[in-house]
């Protein structure tokens, strides 16, 4: 028997490697995976380097590891079955839709067998989620409460610690002007990472990568977790929705790349944060609760939404949005300060934090009318932590309101929101308070135009009543025609790369 270790399952603390410490491991680093899309260069380095480090750690621990660097996954399996005819492989269930079936076919064609077991890199099993859903609506908040009860995290005698499930109201502050976020730890590339970097040296890219500094080993990932708990957890909550100039990290955890590779387990991440909260007086409950909600709530929820929603979710387009993804997402060439900062972060390090993702990058795509699947592909290839199971529910359903599973209204916002939650507007060429005219913020005209364009779909949504009342006011004041002309002009300029 051999344990097949996929590139996002780099753990021997749970799953078949933990259950069978003496069995051989098989790892396949397939170049075709990395070249199929124009991935951010840091993502290619992250995955390959983390795999090679994990291979070395397994070998140091005494395990026999067959490691193949090959063009395609099929080539790697050919090499394995040449050496071990008829071998029985065991693998944790892959996260991507259809991957299990493709993998089984590849193994069977080569005379082997494949045993697919529970993917233990997540907290909530498919059976657990499906059982919960039998008596519940598909709503994140309800699932999150279920997970709090199941895990016992931040619970006391069956009730949430502090008396409330959710402290979002306390987590919408913006930092003072003189706020200096803690320094972000960087992990210098070692020889293994440099080797990978040399191998990808000739790859052309749309990105503008800074020096690579993401954790690629278990020990560096643990260090990143400890650093977050010690230095950034305190202010994570209050400033989690804020956007500040060039402060790309603020107090965000930056742990998703390591979590999504399996280097960290969600259980240990959450427990470390709760331990810090319980041991110290300076970590507010709102901070740790906000963090716990992201990890045991949202992350697990979208994984199961994806599992249950594919393949339909991968094709959903409720608003019939068909515009091609504009070049600004790749080149960042724009005078819009908020969009410029978000894309700049993606070009440099394959990262933007969650409010930039939702309220700038997704919001702009939604209002512009971009094809949700083009935007989903962009999130998948451009982000260091982007995988189909993450980006599809977050982009298609939540960001673009293209599915009909859990989103109860579109996340559409004008400059008003961005101005309130950031300092971008103060230094922007555009005026956040203007809707029409050359210097008016593009978000504003696009926002009202979006509401007018999709009125038949959205007006009956009771959560949209207030905004449609405002739209009526504009219509009554004969202002809507001018706004929609401005929106058409903005779209032309976006398409021409001149916004
Ligand atoms: S004015 Fe508009 S484009 Fe400029 S930063 Fe504000 S929201 Fe963004």
Q: How is the main sheet built?
A: 5 strands, parallel
Based on the structure given, which CATH architecture of the largest domain is correct? Orthogonal Bundle
What do the pLDDT scores average to? 96
CATH superfamily of the largest domain: DNA Cyclobutane Dipyrimidine Photolyase, subunit A, domain 3
Question: Whole-number radius of gyration?
Answer: 23 Å
Q: Bound compounds, please?
A: iron/sulfur cluster
Strands of the widest sheet, in order across it, are 3-2-1-4-5
Strand content: 5-15%
Question: Which outline best applies?
Answer: globular
Low-confidence stretches: none
CATH fold description of the largest domain:
DNA Cyclobutane Dipyrimidine Photolyase, subunit A, domain 3
Helix content: 40-55%
Supply the number of helical segments.
Answer: 22
Q: N- to C-terminal separation?
A: 58 Å
At the first level of CATH, what is the class of the largest domain?
A: Mainly Alpha
Helix-strand category: alpha/beta
InterPro entries: Crypto/Photolyase_FAD-like_sf (IPR036134), PhrB-like (IPR007357), Rossmann-like_a/b/a_fold (IPR014729), UV-DNA_repair_photolyase (IPR052551)
GO molecular function: lyase activity
Biased composition (Basic and acidic residues): 183-192
Organism: Halarchaeum grantii
């Amino acid at each position: 028997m051999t344990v097949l270790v996929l590139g996002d399952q780099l753990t021997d603390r749970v799953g078949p490697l933990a259950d069978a410490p003496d069995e051989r491991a098989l790892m396949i680093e397939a170049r075709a995976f990395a070249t199929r899309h124009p991935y951010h260069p840091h993502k290619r380095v992250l995955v390959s380097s983390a795999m090679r480090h994990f291979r070395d750690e397994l070998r140091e621990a005494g395990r026999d590891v067959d490691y193949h660097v090959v063009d395609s996954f099929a080539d790697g399996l050919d090499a394995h079955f040449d050496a071990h005819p008829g071998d029985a492989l065991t693998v944790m269930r892959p996260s991507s839709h259809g991957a299990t079936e493709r993998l089984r076919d590849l193994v069977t064609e080569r005379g082997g067998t494949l045993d697919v077991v529970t993917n233990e890199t997540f907290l909530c099993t498919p059976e657990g989620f499906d059982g919960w859903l039998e008596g519940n609506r598909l709503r994140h908040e309800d699932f999150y409460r279920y997970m709090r009860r199941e895990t016992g995290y931040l619970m006391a005698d069956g009730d949430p610690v502090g008396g409330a499930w959710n402290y979002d109201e306390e987590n919408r502050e913006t930092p003072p002007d003189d706020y200096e976020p803690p320094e972000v730890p960087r992990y210098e590339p070692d020889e293994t990472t440099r080797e990978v970097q040399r191998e990808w040296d000739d790859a052309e890219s749309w990105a503008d990568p800074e020096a690579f500094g993401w954790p690629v080993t278990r020990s560096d990932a643990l260090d990143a977790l400890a650093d977050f708990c010690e230095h950034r957890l305190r202010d994570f909550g209050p400033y989690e929705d804020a956007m500040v100039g060039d402060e790309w990290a603020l107090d965000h955890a930056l742990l998703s790349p390591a979590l999504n590779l399996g280097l960290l387990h969600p259980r240990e991440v959450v427990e470390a944060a709760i331990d810090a909260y319980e041991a110290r007086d300076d970590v507010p409950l709102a901070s740790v609760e906000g963090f716990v909600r992201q990890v045991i709530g949202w992350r697990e929820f979208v994984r199961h939404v994806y599992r249950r929603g594919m393949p339909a979710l991968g094709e959903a387009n409720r608003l019939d949005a068909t515009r091609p993804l504009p070049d600004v997402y790749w080149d960042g060439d724009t005078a819009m300060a908020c969009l410029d900062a978000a894309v700049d972060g993606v070009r440099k390090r394959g990262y933007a934090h969650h409010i930039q993702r939702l309220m700038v990058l997704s919001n702009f795509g939604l209002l512009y009318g971009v094809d949700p699947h083009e935007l989903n592909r962009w999130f998948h290839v451009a982000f260091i932590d982007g995988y189909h199971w993450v980006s599809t529910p977050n982009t298609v359903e939540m960001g673009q309101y293209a599915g009909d599973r859990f989103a109860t209204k579109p996340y559409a916002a004008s400059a008003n929101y961005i101005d309130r939650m950031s300092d971008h507007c103060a230094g922007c060429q555009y005026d956040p308070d203007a809707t029409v005219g050359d210097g008016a913020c593009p978000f504003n005209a696009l926002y009202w135009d979006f509401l007018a364009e999709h009125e038949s779909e959205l007006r009956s949504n009771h959560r949209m009543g207030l905004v449609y009342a405002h739209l009526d006011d504009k219509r009554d004041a004969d202002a809507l025609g001018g706004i929609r002309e401005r929106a058409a002009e903005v779209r032309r300029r976006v398409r021409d790369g001149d916004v």
